[in-house]
């Protein structure tokens, strides 16, 4: 009996139909999240929205998308200190209000008949501190570096982990979880045997074209806040990793002068892609407020 079977290895490399489905699922999921985050921004200062009720509202927006079946895991909807608890799950005993005074970390995903999603965004609906913005920007720089790195086929994910941590390590910061996990196609949201982690993964067969993994560096200040930025990325042949979330990064939390010209260029191209791909779907669904939020968050930046 073996721990890793041929079936697992075949599932890890998606076929063209699965790849197309994953892309479509993430476009729909991005539309749902645009609706949720724009709704939050509009209502958080005038209504009592909590971690639990926010997660329920997000589920309502996902249910509006075609071929949605259910959540791929319980939503991690976390405010302030709760965001520093990496696997926090809100319930009635811990539920707190989402406010304009603290960071809000939302890690969630959906199961669609054409694919599985897992995405994290960290937002602030007021004025973040300089330290919060510095941490967010360092996490973003590592996220971009991993998303754009080119590497030999079949290299183990463990060798790529340091790319995501480099800019945190420069100032003595780190995070205590892996950087990426495989993801299924309308299957497990965590699907092995490959992964990206500071720990060597014995079963990792090496990364190759057709695999999908999460890219999710973060930083957690105990008792204060948590930051994580997560997209699902596809390993492709002979060109940089492509991003399949099409959901804006949060400009309010970025210190632009900390970014290089190439990082600014990457972000602007990525945000244009968000407009081009998700904008028409929001138009089709009549989600005017969500589209306005999307376009504002994707305005080009410059140093």
Automatic annotation (TrEMBL):
Stretches assigned to the Peptidase M24 domain: 21-235
Domain Peptidase M24 C-terminal: residue ranges: 250-301
Claim: Hydrolase is one of the keywords in the record: yes
InterPro entries xref list: Creatinase/aminopeptidase-like, Pept_M24, Pept_M24B, Peptidase_M24_C, Peptidase_M24B_aminopep-P_CS, X-Pro_aminopeptidase_P
CDD domains listed in its UniProt record: APP
Keywords, comma-separated and alphabetical: Hydrolase, Metal-binding
Family (UniProt): Belongs to the peptidase M24B family.
Full protein name: Uncharacterized protein
Organism listed in the record: Molorchus minor
